[in-house]
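Hey all, quick one. A colleague (J.T.) asked me to put the 3,4-dihydroxybenzoic acid job into the tracker so the inputs and the structure tokens live in one place instead of scattered across chat threads. No bug as far as I know, just bookkeeping. Sequence used:
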Amino acid sequence: MNPSDLVEVEQLWSQVDGYIQDKLIGSDPALEAALEESDRAGLPQIAVSAPQGRLLAILAKAINAKRILEIGTLGGYSTIWLARSLPLDGRLVSLEVDPRHGEVASANVARAGLEDRVEIRVGPAIKSLPDVSAEVTATGERFDLVFIDADKPSTSAYFERVLGLTRPGGLIIVDNSVRHGRLVDDSGSDANVVGMRDFHDLLATTPGVSATTIQTVGSKGYDGFTIVHVGR
Ligand code: SAH
Ligand code: DHB
Ligand code: MG
């Protein structure tokens, strides 16, 4: 496809996302404010799209999620989508390395009225996970849903650590696993792609899970996500 055709088709994907948002999601002041405040603070515009946020919320509700772990908070946009699908006594822990992102996200989560259900922990996720793990061991309460959406090269490391923290029947969802189709590029030149290919290798040899990767197009271009069902 030549570049101008690609621009056109990407515009079409964005228009269709706009249509879906207008018809099925509508105006949502807290979510819109979360994106506006994230922009104002100079955060990158890489939050999940509104239709993707709705999908996360539907999946969380479908499995009756009460405990959610997120890795990669940014401005808290996906956090808000996920936390809203929790019951009042539900809980979401989100791990974020950048203190500025954490601050913006905290304000956005508070504006959405979700601060009682959401805890943002600032630090490298790999360093926060041992505490998270110890808490699961102490309480016996595993996560129903884990959303991995941070530094892509660490995806397998995160997956290995959260698998045992996820209840049977729970879901682990990984964002950005197709990367404009570069998932099939075996040259090793892009660390993000290597990360997602390693993750697929790991999934292929992990017993007791059922996984698929769904390719997506939309306002964020061509990408995809991986859903892992932890076996019962
Ligand atoms: N889930 C968000 C988008 C996350 S973007 C949404 O859809 O709204 C990825 C985030 O991961 C960024 O905020 C980045 O700072 C964070 N991140 C990158 N490396 C990390 C690490 N090692 N530990 C925790 N968070 C990390
Ligand atoms: C990008 C998109 C994401 O959803 C993400 O988590 C990180 C990066 C990107 O488009 O660069
Ligand atoms: Mg992402």
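Adding what we noticed when we looked at it: The first helix runs from residue 3 to 25. Residues 96 and 122 are 5 Å apart (CA to CA).
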